Amino acid sequence: MTSPASPALSPSQRSAVRRRDATAVRYTLEELAACAPGHAVEVRVPPFGVIQAVAGTVHRRGTPPSVVETDAATWLALATGRLAWQEALDDGRLHASGERCDLSPYLPLMRA
Which Gene3D superfamilies does the UniProt entry name for this protein (predicted)? Predict the structure, then answer.
């Protein structure tokens, strides 16, 4: 994946890469919500999207009991099977807390 911050890209190319990444993140988050419906885990991929997924305790206000947060590149690598859940946790590229925060049964959403 080309980083939007790559100095080799022109400003218009960086903008196009950012839009592509935003669309891909939002789509894969929607796919996760469809295959793991619920409100027990909040999945955050700032600045592009956030969803609630996984059956269990319903979260209504404040910080949810289970939270997963990562950057766009890591999320897309997880969603497409280019990165394993445990590897992302071990490397510190993924932060997950709460009893239902393990999304590995739902990933990858699709193969690269």
Answer: 3.30.1050.40
